[in-house]
């Protein structure tokens, strides 16, 4: 079996600089998240509803403006756009930090900050997603996505622990200001990237109906629709895991900010491990998306049953591994299987579903926690996630003709027959080899490649569409 280098994308200079900027900035982002949650709890007297409202306001703009943001990303220079969005986030963080340090912060200030941050992420999130494919070639894209996730999760490991200590020593205000300054590292990295070495996607000219065009593109791809439903189902409660941890630590175990930071870091350690494991895979697989989603739901159930703080923290590690397996594989699936000129709009829809359900789920999580206790919130989330993923998996297996035994490990099973019509002689030059590699990658994903979507729209009627590819991928 060929060994896959975990950090192979770092051989690209531009990506190495970009990743370094993210590596320095990400801990500040997670420090701010912990400080924000803790500040709300302290200002509101431990209200789960207030905590849920903060999360809802932060993600609400993505729900209503996400598709518009994706259309804007397809029009503009992504590097310049990211410089503006990152600088704006830094200004907001410093502003709230000053208020909190002076003791003038109130709950509505945090609400306003969260909403402003959400407005900026409407452009920043799809911009970052669509920028990575311009930095690295297609064959390195899954690895680059996984390393981005690993960097983010490394910040999630270190940031909460540092934030917990700093909040206990100096309060939440300085933590916000530190994060505001950390955005400078990302901005410097973006400015150091050599534009001549990028692979920029041709910008879409301004015109009417571009959002509708993106919706039609997604609606015509049954594979993408299925994955969007799965993403929304898992994220309804999964996006609010941080809130659930905060409520468990504060209200159930009655521990302080340091204990909250340790618990959040435990989840991040698992997520970091999951991201690094994903970096070792050459191609994402649909089966891993389903296994990760189902496992995450089960882990939520187990976490809700833990009797003490230590046991609760321990279960957060595999919970993080499973969630990141789901997230990273799903992200790579979308990035690799869409038309580059549609990437901004498709990724904005992905983020709209993936992040936009948080405003709906956050108040529900808070309401359940306030009415029945934080354990009930975790148990409900785990049960709903497990049932929904199970139903979607069974429907997928039934419609694709996949048996339960096909989902078992490959060892001990007969090898899958090679599909006819897939022979590509290797003597047609680099272009043909590259096309064969892309087609093979699409088969590994279980979805159509962008080229197949554009040139073989009638393949479903002939039995060669994504349904058959997804079935083969599930069996792998």
Structure description:
- The chain has helices at 13-44, 48-75, 78-101, 107-135, 141-170, 173-192, 210-219, 222-238, 241-252, 257-279, 286-304, 309-336, 343-356, 358-372, 374-400, 430-445, 450-455, 466-475.
- With 476 residues, the chain is an all-alpha fold.
- The longest helix has 32 residues, at 13-44.
- Mean pLDDT is 78; it is low at 416-466.
**Helix-and-strand structural type:** mainly alpha
Helix and strand pattern: HHHHHHHHHHHHHHHHHH
Q: How many DSSP-defined strands?
A: 0
Tell me the β content.
under 5%
Mean pLDDT across all residues, rounded?
78
Unreliable stretches (pLDDT < 50, length at least 5) are 416-466
Radius of gyration: 22 Å
End-to-end Cα distance, whole Å, is: 15 Å
Helix share, percent: over 70%
Number of H- or I-type helical stretches: 18
Largest sheet: none
- Which word captures the global form? globular
Describe the secondary-structure layout.
Blueprint (H helix, E strand, L loop, with lengths): L12 H32 L3 H28 L2 H24 L5 H29 L5 H30 L2 H20 L17 H10 L2 H17 L2 H12 L4 H23 L6 H19 L4 H28 L6 H14 L1 H15 L1 H27 L29 H16 L4 H6 L10 H10 L1
Helix pairs in contact: 1-2, 1-4, 1-5, 1-6, 2-4, 2-13, 2-14, 3-4, 3-6, 4-13, 5-10, 5-12, 8-13, 8-15, 9-10, 9-15, 10-12, 11-12, 11-15, 14-15, 15-18, 16-18
In short:
The protein has 476 residues and is an all-alpha fold.
Descriptors for this entry?
76% helix; single chain; 476 residues; mainly alpha; 18 helices
């Amino acid at each position: 079996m060929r060994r896959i280098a975990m950090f192979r994308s770092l051989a690209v200079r531009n990506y190495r600089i970009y990743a370094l900027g993210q590596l320095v900035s990400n801990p500040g982002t997670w420090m701010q998240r912990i400080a924000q949650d803790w500040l709300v709890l302290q200002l509101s007297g431990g209200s789960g509803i207030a905590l849920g409202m903060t999360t809802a306001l932060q993600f609400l703009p993505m729900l209503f403006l996400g598709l518009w943001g994706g259309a804007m990303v397809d029009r503009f220079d992504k590097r310049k756009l990211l410089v503006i969005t990152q600088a704006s986030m830094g200004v907001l963080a410093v502003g709230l930090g000053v208020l909190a340090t002076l003791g003038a912060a109130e709950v509505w200030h945090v609400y306003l900050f969260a909403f402003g941050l959400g407005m900026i992420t409407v452009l920043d999130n799809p911009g970052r997603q669509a920028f990575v494919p311009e930095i690295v070639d297609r064959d390195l894209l899954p690895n680059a996505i996984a390393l981005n996730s690993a960097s983010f999760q490394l910040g999630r490991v270190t940031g909460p622990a540092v934030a917990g200590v700093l909040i206990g020593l100096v309060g939440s205000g300085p933590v916000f200001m530190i994060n505001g300054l950390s955005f400078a590292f990302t901005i410097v990295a973006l400015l150091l990237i050599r534009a001549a070495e990028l692979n920029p996607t041709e910008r879409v000219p301004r015109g009417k109906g571009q959002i509708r065009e993106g919706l039609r593109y997604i609606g015509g791809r049954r594979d993408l629709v299925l994955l969007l439903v799965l993403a929304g189902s898992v994220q309804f409660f999964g996006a609010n895991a941080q809130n659930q941890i905060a409520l468990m630590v504060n209200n159930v175990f009655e521990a302080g900010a340091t204990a909250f930071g340790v618990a959040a870091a435990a989840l991040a350690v698992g997520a970091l491990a999951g991201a690094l494991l994903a970096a070792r895979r050459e191609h994402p697989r649909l089966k891993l998306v389903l296994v990760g989603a189902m496992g995450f739901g089960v882990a939520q159930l187990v976490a809700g049953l833990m009797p003490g703080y230590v046991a609760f923290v321990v279960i957060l590690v595999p919970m993080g591994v499973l969630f990141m397996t789901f997230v990273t594989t799903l992200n790579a699936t979308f990035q690799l299987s869409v038309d580059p000129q549609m990437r901004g709009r498709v990724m904005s829809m992905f983020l709209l579903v993936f992040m936009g359900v948080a405003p709906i789920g956050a108040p529900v999580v808070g309401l359940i926690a306030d009415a029945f206790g934080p354990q009930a919130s975790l148990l409900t989330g785990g049960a709903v996630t497990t049932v929904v993923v199970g139903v979607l998996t069974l429907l997928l297996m039934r419609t694709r003709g996949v048996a339960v035994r096909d989902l078992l490990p490959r060892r001990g099973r007969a090898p899958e027959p090679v599909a006819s019509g897939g022979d590509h002689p290797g003597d047609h030059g680099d272009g043909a080899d590259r096309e064969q590699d892309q087609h093979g990658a699409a088969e590994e994903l279980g979805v159509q490649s962008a080229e197949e979507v554009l040139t073989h729209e009638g393949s479903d009627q002939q039995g060669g569409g994504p349904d058959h590819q997804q079935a083969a991928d599930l069996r792998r």
